[in-house]
Amino acid sequence: MKAAKLRVLVISHGHPSFSIGGAEVASYNLFQGLNSLPGCESHYLARIGPPVTPHNGTALLSLRQKEREMLFWANDYDHFLLSNRNLAAIEDDLVRYIRDVQPDVVHFHHFLGLGVECVHGIRKHFPHIPIVVTLHEYLSICHHHGQMVKTSKGTLCQGASPAECSMCFPQISAGEFMKRELFLKTFFDQVDHFISPSQFLIERYVGWGLPREKCTLLENGLILTDAAPPRPLPKGGRRGRFAYFGQVTRFKGVQVLLDAITRVPDAVWGEDASVAFFGGNLDNQPEDFQRDFKALMEQAGRRARFYGPYRAPEIANLMRDIDYVIVPSIWWENSPLVIQEAFAHGRPVICSNIGGMAEKVRNGVDGLHFRVGSTEDLADRFTEVLREPQLWDRLRAKIRRPLGYQEAARQHTQIYRALLDARQPAPLPQAANG
Known about the structure:
The protein is of the alpha/beta class. The chain is built from 15 helices and 16 strands. The strands form three sheets. The protein has an eight-stranded mixed beta sheet, with helices on both faces. Strands 13-12-11-14-15-16 form a six-stranded parallel beta sheet, sandwiched between helices. Helix 1 (22-36) packs across helix 15 (405-423), helix 4 crosses helix 5 (174-188) and helix 7 (254-262) packs parallel to helix 9.
């Protein structure tokens, strides 16, 4: 008998066509990967908001997206509670859409902007459908953009609690933070399984209260293309081209990186070393951060160049001109997409020694660690690689090819089918022969 086709609805807090970010790319890669597998069909629902305007009378709109793709307009959102106040749109439009699609599994790649009430709406109307959530950062635990970084001094938070959170936000009482935690956990209790591409993230959420048996470590898949060849070196040349890829924000550690390159002695840096910054979102940052960033860029002089935002299809060409990728984030991170992209093109990574970064990059094997937030230690890593011409080849030789999107999708289907099997009713006992 032919097995029934597995139908999966992937829900994302943003569509890569409108919102560029690692979580959006990961969710869309999963959607495409599932559709590439025999016996599997996937649909994709992504949140969208202003400046796009909704259709009259419905939160659903297509905007000529591809087959099996739909957008869900949501903007009445409470950032403190991760809550969607427009419950009517969930009860009417989301429920109607799911009833039309008839998925076997619903997989959330975040509910930012969508609201945790979406989980309850699905559980209420479709109690037989397993709900899976991929965790991307610590937003449910931490109100500070989910970064788990103290608001006062920017130091790392080792463990959230209502009292600790209230110290970061004195205008919000510890009691309100306790209510927030209990509110969010009522929705998390309705999730059947959690997926994380980082063991570190799992440990943080288990410490917060998620059952360990409901969590699985599984990497997000990457659409792998032909790797960019190594940069051709002139006679006597060094591997001294570095690059930063990502959002230009304080949490990403760009100030640490800019400060560090000015601390490398001229005799070591030479005339051939440089750092290229490829990133967007600078214009949306606080004015003091923008001023600091521009001042540090000027201080760095010829050592740094800012090229502005980039798009995913450009990565291969950009990688052709660089040797090392720098990931200097000052928060724990989870599974930065840029690390996968760097490894896919055979570029060693120099990163902060915490969280998912330290987990993905093996120090001294396929990259190097530096002490998080330490400009001096990062400057030492620059000195190390610039003085050791053979180090690049040794690190590159140990780089492991990242997980492809189709294999990642196949691994996801194993979890889906296990959840569906667990929901099957047990067979009735056979009557004894009389």
